[in-house]
């Protein structure tokens, strides 16, 4: 009877193993192309709820820049961003970053321990407001990350920066990103965002990749 029980347990384990879906193959996207797309789900860690889903699609690639259209799925909220080839933000519909917003990008080649600093002048084209941004990024490790989109080998990057209004230095925003960047798809698959205004918590979000791919 013991032998039968052991055999039954072994069959159950094997059956569960066979029932598990095969891991998704990673689609190589090391060189950006028009039509490349990434969709991230945003979870508000303060409420514990999914706040929105953001879809990004490359519209154009030049030797210097990557143009990208984005939208919040299920809403009319959409926009257009321009990045350099290292994913540093250069401009949005209302903002211009000089030379770029370094908190969003990377500095290839990545390796554990590598760090870099950045600073920019961020100008709002609608009202002329100027905010100074400065910060640092450091590659703190390599991790395997699994999301709904698959399993990826990533570099974990810690970024700390502050943004301050040049006309009112009392207004200061301090932000910490933890970014898991996957070289195989030339994008980040997970990012946490903690933002404090005048040292009071304003945002605590986690963004995870749920879909991506190339133009079919």
- What is the succession of H and E elements? HEEEEEEEEEEEE
Strand order of the largest sheet: 1-2-3-4-5-6-7-8-9-10-11-12
Strand content: over 45%
Topology, number of strands: 12
**Could you say which structural class the secondary elements and strand pairing correspond to?**
mainly beta
**What summary fits the major beta sheet?**
12 strands, antiparallel, barrel
User: What is the fold-level CATH name, i.e. the topology?
Assistant: YmcC-like fold
Low-confidence stretches: 1-18
Query: What characteristic shape results from the CA principal axes?
Result: globular
Give the termini distance in whole angstroms. Answer: 56 Å
Per DSSP, the total helix count is 1
**CATH architecture call:** Beta Barrel
Q: How many structural units, i.e. domains?
A: 1
Oligomer: single chain
What do the pLDDT scores average to? 90
CATH class bucket = Mainly Beta
Our Rg estimate from Cα atoms comes to 21 Å
